[in-house]
Design a protein that fits this description.
By secondary structure, the chain is of the alpha+beta class. It has a single domain, classed as EutN/Ccml (OB fold (Dihydrolipoamide Acetyltransferase, E2P)), CATH 2.40.50.220. The protein is built from two helices and five strands. The protein has a five-stranded antiparallel sheet. The radius of gyration is 16 Å and the shape is globular. The two termini are 25 Å apart.
Length: 101
Amino acid sequence: MKRARVIGQVWAARKAAALDGRRLLLCADGRSGEVIVAIDTLDAGVGADVLVSWGSGARRVLGGGALGRGESYRDVLGDAAISLVVDDASHDVENAREERE
């Protein structure tokens, strides 16, 4: 997962049937600033801090975990999905450095 900020929305006149009813959001990576398109699963708004899941993790978020054991998520269309809207986060940089050393 990567932390990102929602910076806009993608509008489409036509899209694949599997994307019907889904919003596509522009998200800027919190570290690199790289902009990616993620499928919104939580009604995140512009300016929201979010966690974006990638690859098979995104497909699991998009599948809603509704598939049974042994079933495949490969048919779920999407490579990036918003999996969490961040309310608050904190970290202690000094303690993290000390723990690594």
